[in-house]
Amino acid sequence: MELLWRSSHIAGGNATYVEDLYESYLKDPNGVPEQWRDYFNKLPRVESDFVHNEDIPHSVIRDRFAQISKMRVRTEATIAHDSQATEYERKQVRVVQLISAYRQRGHQKAELDPLGIARREHVRDLELSFHELSRADFDTVFQTGSLHIGKADATLGEIHDVLERTYCKSIGAEFMHIVNTDERHWIMTRMESVRGAPDFGEEVQLTLLRRLIRAEGLEKSLASKYPGTKRFGLEGGESLIPMLAEMIQRSGSQGVKEIVIGMAHRGRLNVLVNTLGKNPSELFDEFEGRAEYDGSGDVKYHQGFSSNVMTPGGEVHLALAFNPSHLEIVAPVVEGSVRARQERREDHVGELVTPVVIHGDAAFAGQGVVMETFQMSQTRAYKTGGTVHIVLNNQVGFTTSLREDARSTEYCTDVAKMVQAPIFHVNADDPEAVLFVTQMAVDYRTEFRKDVVIDLICYRRRGHNEADEPSVTQPLMYQAIRKHKTTRDLYAARLVAQGVLSEEQDAFLVDTFRESLDRGEPLVSSLVSEPNKTLFVDWSPYIGHKWTDQATTTIDLQKLQALAQEINVAPDNFPLQRTVSRILEDRRKMAAGAAPVNWGFAETMAYATLLDAEYPVRLTGQDVGRGTFSHRHAVLHNQKDEGCYIPLQHISDEQAPFVIHDSLLSEEAVLAFEYGYATTMPKGLVIWEAQFGDFANGAQVVIDQFITSGEHKWQRLCGLTMLLPHGYEGQGPEHSSARLERFLQLCAEHNIQVCVPTTPAQVFHMLRRQAIRPLRKPLVVMSPKSLLRHKEAVSTLEDLAQGRFHNVLDESDDLDKAKVRRVILCSGKVYYDLRAARREREIDDVAIVRIEQLYPFPEEDLLAVLKQYPAITDAVWCQEEPMNQGAWYSSQHHMRRVLFNHKNDVYLHYVGRDSSASPAAGYMALHLEQLEAFINKALAPEEPWQ
């Protein structure tokens, strides 16, 4: 309504008429003439304490038009005639559109490339002529509207200057894609109020310079001491160091107690020394091969680190996550670690622990796990209160030119728009602009608890690594880089020109840093020498244990029954779906001993007993609440209002937390998150369940580079449990195999546990053992599908209460062991197929022995079982999987060694499907034909072995 005062037809006596028209328009826009409707549509809505973009009350309209009428009288002398007023109003609307255009697209004109060689398309929306304005209008005063420049009126020249300085200099802000009005206006206010460039005092400027000196100085020192050695230096992106320093100090001042940082290679060594305070002498020892390693170790630029620094808000713990060469995969690992730390601190909104993830530009745009991580950022199971993302934008990916080949979008950061994250592009050669966007990013995350992205546009002064010659593939870029002064030199010259320091003082600062570096002193002045250990995760109870250590997993029978009755009852007035109601009723019968125990009962009872003993349980994955195969039903759904009730969360007031969430349709990011969580939360159970075991393929990077190797590369213990449905039921190649062979191929040095339980009691004790035993090794479970309801796959309450997990299960039928001539060794569901066929054929001289843990292979347990069969003449390994898959190739040497120690003349034969490129048959008839063939061979009385 600020525009109305300039229109002659609303002056004086017309005000009442216009007021009535406007009220009619608010009630029904179509109830006023078209020309008035168009006019009112252009007006901004007036808001009051009780009105939020709704109809404006009569009193506000009356007072406003009275004010307009008075303003009209005062300004009437300046308006020559009605046509001039109308032209003015049109231009006022164009000015508003110009302001909007700069907010929308000013970043496309911003001076972001330090090298000045990036090709940018011309943006017509930012031309005055596009909005039917010109420099001839620069002296005309217009309403500034929502433009935050401290006054309601300004000349077009002033407005244009503000917009250019705010949105088209060293910062390019993308935020108009954000739907939330408060967030957009928050950014507008922060940017426009200081014209995108606040005035920093001399002390701040000198601190910036010192941090740049440290960043550049370390790289120069490493280059001179170890020329040609790979270090993925930060040259060209030195502004990252003052950025991180400000991020840490500002976060600390706002109450943050822990910051977990994830990053790949570029600049990692610099961050270790200049941000986390690693002693430079330790880094030099690593370059010179003098460092001591546990396990296999890893290269320098994959290593993690932790330290404590002091901030205005107190001590802050910093943790740099270990990271393999798969670049972006560390992002969800960091999120999982942060979530665990937040839960440990009961930090439910993310006030105390902050994730910071540093990305490469090519990887950020190219790797799908980035999208998955963004997608999980606001979900219940995975939110962490917002992540600060920093893209270290080298403008080249290895040797790939980015705009032409590495992406189809204008910016590498465009994927972040999917969650409406604000994106601040900033020229890395302007350290003060970098400082400003860092402050904005931290404050935005604090204010809104959402992700925010800083695109630090820089370059790499050397090649992809220090052994590369980059001009081979980017000749023009590296011609420009060779002529380009460093960020430090440019900023020092700027401060000298401003009179902040002299050239002599600048040289003194550089020399002082070199002396400190030569002395091997820590370079982070805020480093805490004696950190507060309450900020750390205590892993000491879980170190130094062997997989052979036993754990007592028995439980009092009456206690078990009481818990079972407790968790299998829905609340009053909570209508259940008929099938679910029947499942709970059946489980109550199992608890009473009136029915055999099935898989779903045993699994949920394992969780209940652990929770009651104060071991926390976290279970995520696709469909985990119900269970993909409808066996779990840990989450009950009200059939009237869709409310949920989780019985395992209501065992007692003293119980441990039980967290269960159906995940987004992701394997890679979700499993990486759970790995990060498990490496930070040692107590209890952390479980990820695949919808089908085959789907773990999508997370193979996490399995290869973290779960199976993390302990030996980085000394990172992890007790994560993976439940992977596995079993051949004729459902085709993508719904049969969890790729057991891949896990067994990765087994070495007792790095993981691989189990194939075949009874409810086994899964009960296996899960309890994983939590109770202090050994922290990942547990990979080939969990069943058809066995969940198999009539033979049952146990008794006594099996749960009094038993334990058996690595090997002996023959279950009543055979005369002295007469057994053949032993069939197997794992998983095939046992029930073999036993059914043997019973049908009334064979009494073939024993079937189940190996329930394939790694670490239980040779002693197997030998103890086989010694009960003194008359065996041959042995068979029988598996469902094709010969080139499953356990055969990875485990046969273990079984042969055991057989040799028992009877050295017994040879182990393979029985199963022939080698196949596909995991399983896609036709049911073919599946059944193959099953019958290998069962016949396994049970044949005189099989001529090949």
Task: Describe this entry's structure for a reader.
This protein has an 8-stranded mixed β-sheet with strand order 3-11-12-8-7-4-6-5. Residues 1-8 and 45-56 have low confidence and may be disordered. The protein contains 31 helices and 26 strands. The protein is an alpha/beta fold and 946 residues long. It folds into 4 domains: 4-117 and 126-147 and 154-169, no CATH class; 202-527, 3-Layer(aba) Sandwich (Rossmann fold); 557-727 and 736-802, 3-Layer(aba) Sandwich (Rossmann fold), CATH 3.40.50; 808-939, Multifunctional 2-oxoglutarate metabolism enzyme, C-terminal domain (Rossmann fold, 3-Layer(aba) Sandwich). The longest helix has 24 residues, at 82-105. Strand 19 (753-755), helix 26 and strand 20 (779-783) form a beta-alpha-beta unit. Helix 7 (202-225) packs antiparallel against helix 17 (487-498) and helix 8 (240-253) runs parallel beside helix 15. E1 component of the 2-oxoglutarate dehydrogenase (OGDH) complex which catalyzes the decarboxylation of 2-oxoglutarate, the first step in the conversion of 2-oxoglutarate to succinyl-CoA and CO(2). One of its GO terms (biological process) is tricarboxylic acid cycle.
